[in-house]
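Subject: Sanity check before I submit

Could someone independently write out the structure tokens for this chain? I want to compare against mine line by line before I put it in a report. The sequence has 285 residues.
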Amino acid sequence: MSLNLDPRQRAMLEAMGVTLWQPLAADEPAVKASVATKTAPENIAAYAANQRPAALNEHKFTAPKSNQATDTALAPSPAIDPSAVATLDWPALQTTVTRCQACGLCQGRKSTVFGTGDSQARWLVVGDAPSEADDAQGQPFTDAPGQLSGQLLDNMLKAVGLARNGTGEQSVFITHALKCRPPANRNPQPDEIAQCESYLRRQVALIQPHIILALGRVAAQSLLQATLPDVAALPLGKLRGQVHHYQGVPVVVSYPPTYLLRAPQDKAKAWADLCLALDVLRLRA
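---
Independent answer below. Compare away.
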């Protein structure tokens, strides 16, 4: 496996916490190995050359924090009507998510987590579900003291020339498949995932991203259950290294930052997933 990386590529990998290429597992499919052994795709250099200081832009939408005293007293209301959600514009969708009471998760939340970033971004990053810190701040991938998953995600985005508050080709929208935190960060229930799917579907329809990066099993399940009926039973590793689709948009599945912090040996695989996403984006340009 080649280690002939130029200084720019080494800097990008260092931002992700990957200092050297690492071999993939011997049982990984050949298509994964072919992606992982690439040097960074040509358009990484173009992205990096166009980097500029991150700044808030007029297209950035941040979900307002819900009222904790009100939300803790909420009781679930009737299920979401997907046909009604499908007609909402961006501000109305954001308001609807903030007020949602479609499942029991509304009873313990402090905030809904609609997402953050550029609503016209080419990249859409979808995580599993809000953490305790996300719930407190109303923002996705937020780090509490001593936590580093949000920082790791920012470094992963930086490695491919993106920024959480970036504009233009640096822009990205970040959200979760679920908009409310499951109690004690437990795994979401299938009905909870189903209730939020229409919100995610509408976000995709309005953003019209060119590529979706699904970080985690719940994100993958929410996005791929229509095309892969058995997706809930498949390990995340089986979903990597290939291009899926959601509403006609290519989807690349990878590991969530929380997992990579526990298993840093798989950061090289996450880098291969980012390279695959960049290759797909280049073909769509």
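---
OP: Matches mine. For the report I'm noting this point. The first helix runs from residue 7 to 16.
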